[in-house]
Amino acid sequence: MPRSPRPVLLTGLLALGLAACAPSESVNAPAESSAMSSEPMADMAFSEPSPMTAPPEWAEPGDAARDGENYAAVGEIGFRRTQAAPLSTFSIDVDRASYANVRRMLTSGSLPPADAVRVEEFVNAFELGMPGPTDGAPFAVHTEVAACPWAPEHRLVRVGIQGRRIETASLPPANLVFLLDVSGSMMDADKLPLLTSAFARLQSQLREQDRVSIVVYAGAAGVVLPPTRGTDRRAILGALERLEAGGSTAGAEGIELAYRLARENFDPRAANRVLLATDGDFNVGVTGEGALQRLIERERASGVMLSVLGFGTGNLQDGTMESLASWGNGAYNYIDSEREAERVFVNELGGTLATLAKDVKVQVEFNPAQVSGYRLVGYDNRALPDEAFADDRRDAGELGAGHHVTALYEIVPVGASDAALPAPAPRRYSATASSASGELMTVQLRYKPATGAGTFASESVLMTVPVANRTSTPSNAMAWTSAVAEAALVLRQSAHAPGATLGAALSRARAAVGPDASGDRAEFVGLVQRAMSLGDRPGAQAQRRD
Predict the structure, then answer these.
(1) How far apart are CA 402 and CA 476, in angstroms?
(2) Which residues are registered as beta bridge partners of 446?
(3) What is the DSSP string of 192-252?
(4) What mean pLDDT comes out for the span 234-263?
(5) Residue 54 in 3-state DSSP?
(6) CA separation for the pair 229, 482 (Å, rounded)
(7) Angle at alpha carbon of residue 239, lines to 234 and 243, rounded to 5°
(8) Counting beta carbons within 10 angstroms of the beta carbon of residue 462, is it exposed (0 to 12), middle (13 to 18) or buried (19 or more)?
(9) Shortest CA distance to 306 belongs to which of 316, 315, 295, 317?
(10) Alpha helices, DSSP H only, in 22-62?
(11) Worst-scoring range by mean pLDDT, 111-120, 281-290, 479-488, 490-499?
């Protein structure tokens, strides 16, 4: 999964030899092979990402922002004029670690640093009940257009992707190698003890055909559980009970050993995956980011994917772990509670064990006769150059069974104030826009469908979804999603949503809770209230919006 280039803190995984390695419209659009869709792509047209606003005066001594945690600085992509940049291209992202991590901060009494907030991961943290595909495709696409709550002159377009749901009994076999950090930094109750409890939940879901191994790393790396049947509860839980935290982190030996174990037991019929569980405190050795990336990408090409599970408080290396998962074609989750462990290891196990499509890219073309400008809300580090959309060599995100992805576009309609848009560049020539279709925009998706448990087509499939210029009363999915996005924009300190407030997000979220068997939506309402109360404390008023 591609991400925009940025510095990544990796302080030890490559020690000891890794350098040598390297009401809405619902559409099930018809697909056509990439060989049949060879229209030339428009030239790349990017405006420079807008600079981040200054962090607020929210963090006080003891807050997560000052406790040794690290978050990559990612600038927001601002508004673009349609005439200058009619295409918007990005990779999907099913991660939601940012939401769980910020939930941990708010619950503990700290407002998050702006860089910890990734808007798309907030939005994708919630099930919207979107229907799955009915035509044999791996996913269905849903679109909706409504007024933008924080900018009434603008429109908000929701593009939702819902992967096919698969019952656990029908999932492919699994060859899972857990790479567990048992270094001294993992001693806290919200680290190794929570990790072992989470793993015990996973064991209850494993089947006879599944195989699981455990590799640990600290002062040295070793195999504490050789490949074992998923139903051998005594062996698996016994290995977990023997785990103890201690020593410093020697991650290089561990990741090499985990990959070797996965290769030795590789099953072409199975989901072959390494799952790294850590607080990210890789503190021994000299780092070579490029060598680590090459290693993970080489193993990915062989069919062994890497997912990352973050734990704990105080030294979380968020940027590092997001990068590792991206290179390994896996998801990055942050486990802050038993409840989140249940979600990741039980409720959504299918997304880990069955990948429906890989290299899933989205490209939106805006109609300049209807749209003066636009902004993709979130996905700031998932942007792709426009020409990458049709390039099947270009890596992008994966979609697992039951996964759902939502993207929001804030649209500036023709005739509305264009004050939010960058100044137009002087032009000697101008293109004549076609407005006869009445379409607002066209959403295209490219993906390589799975041909087996861990194999995929070599050529992408193209899906095309036109979006009519028709604004409607927001559905529950739109109302909820916009409330979550608005709260995230405030916490992110977005420079591009000056009208967004926590108070407005809270009001809309309360009205859109609806049936909430999981309690996730009620929990979010409580978190927004918590953020508002924390914003009222002394020293936290700067740039606060409520």
Answers:
(1) 20
(2) 361, 462
(3) HHHHHHHHHHHHTT--TT-EEEEEEESSSEEEEEEEEETT-HHHHHHHHHT----S---HH
(4) 80
(5) coil
(6) 44
(7) 145
(8) buried
(9) 295
(10) none
(11) 281-290
User: What one-letter code names the amino acid at 379?
Assistant: Y
Cβ atoms of 156 and 410 within 8 Å: the answer is yes
What lies within 8 Å, CB to CB, of 419 at 6+ separation is none
More confident residue, 249 or 11: 249
What Å distances lie between residue 47 and 80, 262, 283, 374, CA to CA? 7, 43, 38, 12
Task: State the amino acid at position 15 in one-letter form.
Answer: A
> Token match 């991206």: residue?
326
In sequence order, what are the residues at sequence separation of 6 or more whose Cβ sits closer than 8 angstroms to the Cβ of residue 40?
none
Helix (H, G, I), strand (E, B) or coil at 386: helix
Res 17 pLDDT > 60: no
Q: How many CA atoms lie within 13 A of 409 on its CB side?
A: 29
How far is residue 280's CA from residue 166's CA, in Å, rounded to a whole number?
32
Rounded CA separation 200/346 (Å)? 10
Instruction: List the structure tokens of 68.
Output: 């040794």
Among the listed residues 145, 88, 50, 152, the one whose alpha carbon sits nearest the alpha carbon of residue 416: 152
Residue 497 in tokens: 């949503």
User: For residue 168, which amino acid is it?
Assistant: T
Helix (H) or strand (E) segment spanning residue 486:
helix 476-491
Order the strands of the 221-229 sheet from edge to edge. 221-229, 211-217, 174-181, 271-278, 305-311, 332-335
Which comes out higher in pLDDT, residue 30 or 213? 213
Q: Measuring CA to CA, which residue among 66, 84, 316, 307 is closest to residue 185?
A: 316
Q: What is the pLDDT of residues 347-365, one digit of tens each?
A: 888 888 899 999 999 999 9
Q: Is the pLDDT of residue 528 over 80?
A: yes
Q: Which residue has the tokens 């002159």?
A: 153
Which amino acid type is present at position 507? S
| Residues above pLDDT 70, as percent of the chain | 80
Q: Are strands 80-81 and 87-91 parallel, antiparallel or unpaired?
A: unpaired
pLDDT, tens digit, for every residue of 89-138? 999 999 999 999 999 999 999 999 999 999 999 999 999 999 999 998 99
